[in-house]
Amino acid sequence: MSEETAAEMGGTMHENGMGPLRPLSVRMSDGTRAQLEILAQLNERSLTEQTRLALEHWVETSKSDPAVLRRAEQVRAEIERDAETRRNAIEAVLGGKTAKPTARASKQASSGA
């Protein structure tokens, strides 16, 4: 999927290099929509552009939220535990035979990571 062009994904390329812009339908109250429409008008932007900018700002703000960062660390730990369980399961299926190490695994082993 990473090799698909923006046109193939149904979007357009974003000017900040973050990849293609893809459509997203958002349901919101009439009041919130009216406020967004006014803000878009005041900022001489389309409603779509104003909404996209607001969402991008919220994403950036969330990245420094201590509660979000704590939860991200918890999720990362869960992913690592799941990956270890899956590696062990594959090892058991292979009967202790190890596959050739990947370039990444070899690099990590040589760097001590």
Tell me what you see in this structure.
With 113 residues, the protein is mainly alpha-helical. The chain has helices at 30-42, 47-62, 66-93, 103-111, and strands at residues 12-13, 20-21. It has a two-stranded antiparallel ribbon with strand order 1-2. Helix 1 crosses helix 2. It is elongated and about 65 Å long.
Chart the SSEs and their pairings.
Blueprint: E1 12-13, E2 20-21, H1 30-42, H2 47-62, H3 66-93, H4 103-111
Antiparallel strand pairs: 1-2
Rg over CA atoms, rounded to whole Å, is 22 Å
Determine the oligomeric state from the structure: single chain
Number of strands: 2
- Estimated structural class: mainly alpha
**Number of DSSP helical runs:** 4
Described by the principal axes of the CA atoms, the overall outline is: elongated
N-to-C SSE string, H for helix and E for strand: EEHHHH
Strand content: under 5%
Largest sheet entry: 2 strands, antiparallel
List low-confidence stretches: 1-7
How many domains in all? 2
Side-by-side strand order of the widest sheet:
1-2
